[in-house]
UniProtKB/TrEMBL annotation:
PROSITE patterns: AVIDIN_1 (PS00577), AVIDIN_2 (PS51326). GO terms for cellular component: extracellular region. It comes from Serilophus lunatus. This is Avidin. It holds the Pfam family Avidin. The keyword Secreted applies. PANTHER family: AVID PROTEIN-RELATED, AVIDIN-RELATED. GO terms for molecular function: biotin binding. The lineage of its organism: Eukaryota, Metazoa, Chordata, Craniata, Vertebrata. It is found in: Secreted.
Length: 147
């Protein structure tokens, strides 16, 4: 009886620890990336779909930077500790769209980190200019602490 109780205690601690780590990677909140851009995920539904807004710190246009909407999905099929996700930013101040894909991690200091790769597609006037329409890059986001 004692061995069975000990087994179930260890098993529930192990399962509970896994559940805690998965919950730690909740995307809802405020984030900043390595270039100083800010992302806020305002809500996420039970299927992992989320929405929010993005305020970039960098741009290749001369237009005034405006906050832009984002929509995305978190992989919910299997709730592992480091979930994958993707989101699209529809830029409010230019005729381009950026898609991000990434994964959430907890670093060695216990801080949340979003490692992402992005593709930015800009409008071009004709097919001959298609070669210069897409840029690719990476960003690392960290959670902004509440004030």
């Amino acid at each position: 009886m004692v061995q069975a109780t000990l087994f179930f205690l260890v098993l529930s601690l192990a399962l509970g620890a896994h559940g805690l780590s998965a919950k730690q990677c909740n995307l809802v909140g405020r984030w900043v990336n390595d270039l100083g851009s800010n992302m806020t995920v305002t809500r996420m539904n039970g299927e992992g779909n989320f929405m929010g807004f993005y305020h970039t710190a960098v741009t290749a246009t001369d237009s005034k930077i405006k906050v832009s909407p984002l929509t995305g999905s978190l992989q919910r099929t299997n709730l592992k500790a480091n979930p994958t996700f993707g989101f699209t930013v529809n830029w409010s101040f230019s005729d381009s769209i950026t898609v991000f894909t990434g994964q959430c991690f907890v670093d060695k200091d216990g801080k949340l980190v979003l490692k992402t790769m992005w593709l930015l597609r800009s409008h071009v006037e004709n097919i001959e200019d298609d070669w210069k329409a897409t840029m690719v890059g990476i960003n690392v986001f960290t959670r902004l602490e509440s004030q």
